[in-house]
Amino acid sequence: MASPFDALKGATRLLMHAELRPCQPHPIQVTNFPDLGPARFQTFRGGKDGKDGNWINAVMVDSHQAIANHLEMATWDLAADDWIEPLRGPTGLPYVRIDCGRLGRTHTVREPHRLNSAYIWTGQDTPDTRGFLRAFREAIGFPPDELKPKKRKGDGEAAEGDAEVPGLLDLRRFYKAVFKWDPNSVLHGVFLEKLAGRLRMTRVLSGFIDAYDFTEDAPSGGSKHDPVLPSGKPVGLGTEDGVGNVIYHRTEFAPRTIMAYFKLELAQLRGYSLPVAAEELLLALGMLKVRRLLQDGFHPRSNCDLVMVGEDITVTDAKGKPIRLDSRDPASKEFSIPTVDDLIEILKARITACREAELLASPAVTELTWSVPAKKEPGTINLPKGTTHPDLPDDLQEAVEQKSEGSGRTVKTVLVIKVALDDDQVGRLKEAYGNKDKVNKDIDKALAAVRKNTPAPADDQDEEEPEAGV
After folding, report:
1. Per-residue pLDDT averaged across 386-406, rounded?
2. What are the Cα distances from residue 338, in Å, to 312, 345, 347?
3. What is the per-residue DSSP string for 306-319?
4. C or N terminus of the chain, fewer CB within 10 Å?
5. 332-341 own/partner pairs: CB under 8 Å, 24+ apart
6. Element (H, E) at 208
7. What is the pTM of this model?
């Protein structure tokens, strides 16, 4: 059976573009950068083969990073806080969801670093997080110990990319693991520098929107009117307190042309060596995101509401030429992006095929819990003189440290408890020190001090609290 993407087999990139216009005739509000303002530039717009062109004014409407965020939300149902209906459910498209207790819930589609979310890789260990990290490490060929990154000795966290493992890495296992638990991270990129600096996937799907050919800016402004306190000075308040009239200005543009550009890196995707069903799932998902982003108009900010000009998205290869359904026949029909309904049907079929091949996590949503890391202040126990250093298992050696303090007659032996221990660890620690009453009591006292500064795990928190973002 022919694949709907057969025409793309010889292409290295799939380029897509569409002309946009304001929904209502009006200057548009573009993205602004702190301390920089709008990103103006000049670009060369040429005639045929780049000749007889000229330099024109241009401005960035939305950057690659901003469009990536919009594309991720294009297939997300904000009201349900889940994938759109055809993609959700236990046998749907995988992602990782993290319960942060009273702080609400987040997930890898919302998180800026996707599968590299801090709420997966930091915080106190919980049974579900330990299980996931162990499974992920084993899937990419790493030993299951040291599930979460350690801090380097000295101040601060390890620098980005400092975590490393010796030897050759089978990156194909890494790509397959990321696809299994979070296919969205394959499309939009992820960098698991906390595990190893080589574990990165750059964007397969990217895009940006620029506006061209305007003669001048359209400066405008307004004010926030406070009917109670036009000025907060008489009562000792200011605008930083939210009172008083506030005057603001902004710069808008009335360009002749607005273009949205998108790119699917086909050669890069093939380089991941994923099975065909997985590759076509990602192609369909990427095209669906672009379709849904543009189909009802793109409205990134209050004064920027854009709709497509023309009937469809233009598709070309890396050289700007049409992609033919039959590459051997220059007159054959051109490849076009399937409709939303067709892409959803393709996606459903490829998800089923990937599940039959056990390429996707089951159930689709991996549920984790996160708790605030314990504060750095450890509990300290003064041990009796002459206490020898017991033979502690690896997990306790990471959690406690016996050391000598002072010198000469004032030297003393102390046991530093770095983190809160579970009941099993406490029992084994007491056993290692001979279960002496005084030592037992001191251990309990030190642990109480550590736990006092440690918020309760998410499982113990009030489930009736409202969940953020839902």
Report:
1. 80
2. 10, 10, 12
3. EEESSSS-EEE-TT
4. N
5. 335/7, 335/8, 336/312, 337/16, 337/287, 337/290, 337/291, 337/312, 337/313, 338/4, 338/284, 338/287, 339/291, 340/288, 340/291, 340/292, 340/295
6. strand 205-212
7. 0.76
Cβ density class 274-305: b for 16+ within 10 Å, e for less? beebbbbbbbbbbbbbbbbbbeeebebeeebb
Strand duo 365-369 + 95-99: pairing: parallel
Q: Which amino acid is at 69?
A: N
- pLDDT of 1 higher than 80: no
3-state secondary structure of 385: coil
| Mean pLDDT to the nearest integer, 396-405 | 81
Q: Which 8-state DSSP code applies to residue 20?
A: E
Two structure tokens written together for 152: 């380097």
Q: State the average pLDDT over residues 151-167.
A: 50
β-strands 304-308, 298-301 pairing: antiparallel
User: What mean pLDDT comes out for the span 258-264?
Assistant: 97
Question: DSSP secondary-structure letter at 229?
Answer: -
pLDDT of residue 164: 61
Q: Express each pLDDT in 198-246 by its tens digit.
A: 899 999 999 999 999 998 888 888 888 889 988 888 888 888 888 888 8
Residue 150: the pLDDT is 52
Residue 89 has pLDDT above 50, yes or no: yes
Tokens encoding 450: 């550590």
Work out whether strand 54-62 and strand 205-212 pair parallel, antiparallel, or are unpaired: antiparallel
At residue 45 the predicted structure's pLDDT band, cuts being 50, 70 and 90, is confident
Q: List the helix and strand counts (H, then E) for the chain.
A: 11, 23
What pLDDT score was predicted for residue 155? 41
Phi, psi of 153 (to 5 degrees): -65, 135
CA torsion through residues 156, 157, 162, 165, sign: positive
Q: b/e for 143-177, b at 16 or more Cβ within 10 A?
A: eeeebbbeeeeeeeeeeeeebebeeeeebeebbbb
pLDDT of 398 > 50? The answer is yes
Structure tokens at 52: 């007889």
Report CA-CA distances (Å) from 218 to 60, 209, 255, 306. Answer: 15, 19, 10, 18
Tokens of 307: 């709709």
Other beta carbons within 10 Å of 371: 23
Closest by Cα among 16, 64, 28 to 211 = 28
For the four alpha carbons of 347, 353, 354 and 358, in that order, the dihedral sign comes to positive
Q: How far apart are CA 162 and CA 198, in angstroms?
A: 10
Question: Following CA atoms 335, 339, 345, 351 in sequence, which dihedral angle do they give, to the nearest 10 degrees?
Answer: 70
Q: Decide if pLDDT at 410 tops 50.
A: yes
